[in-house]
Design brief:
Order of helices and strands: EHHEHEHEEH
Strand content: 15-25%
CATH architecture: 3-Layer(aba) Sandwich
Radius of gyration: 14 Å
CATH topology: Rossmann fold
Distance between the termini: 14 Å
Number of domains: 1
Shape: globular
Number of helices: 5
CATH class: Alpha Beta
CATH superfamily: Dehydroquinase, class II
Helix content: 25-40%
Length: 151
């Protein structure tokens, strides 16, 4: 069974308690369980990783690039959190595994927030972007990834 990666960046481990008026009350564990369930329903195994460390996110992208080349992975849904607006390294990591489709996903509408959140270093390297649908955005991104890249 091919794998799909759900990757979450810094502070997303605080979902459900951090700014619930903005991010809601759903926890990261809830998001991951729903993602894994939906992936299984679609015929895929989902692996979930959240890290506050940029290097761990990069290493996991590189690993999945190799898995995709070997025919063992379909792609990645990635909420880079605040690294969206700061990390050229994550941009380069996604560009470095061009065969791996990465869907950038954000819970809130970053374009309706502070101006520094309006720019994404990841977007130019991403296969697609889902923004502002709350935690449902993860499901939207998963289904879009499968529909567009299932071969």
């Amino acid at each position: 069974m091919k794998k799909i990666l759900l990757l979450n960046g810094p502070n997303l481990n605080l979902l459900g308690t951090r700014e619930p008026e903005l991010y809601g009350h759903t926890t990261l564990a809830d998001v991951e369980a729903a993602f894994q369930h939906s992936a299984a329903r679609l015929g895929y195994a989902a692996e979930c990783l959240q890290s506050n460390w940029e290097g761990a996110l990069i290493d996991k992208l590189h690993e999945y690039g190799q898995l995709q080349r070997a025919g063992l992975a379909l792609g990645c849904v990635f909420n880079p959190g605040a690294y969206t607006h700061t990390s050229v390294a994550l941009h380069d990591a996604v560009k470095g595994v061009p065969q791996l489709p990465v869907i950038e996903c954000h819970i809130s509408n970053v374009h309706a927030r502070e101006p520094f959140r309006h720019h994404s270093y990841l977007s130019p390297a991403a296969a697609g972007i889902v923004i502002g649908f709350g935690v449902e955005g993860y499901q939207i991104a998963l289904e879009a990834l499968v529909r567009k890249f299932r071969a």
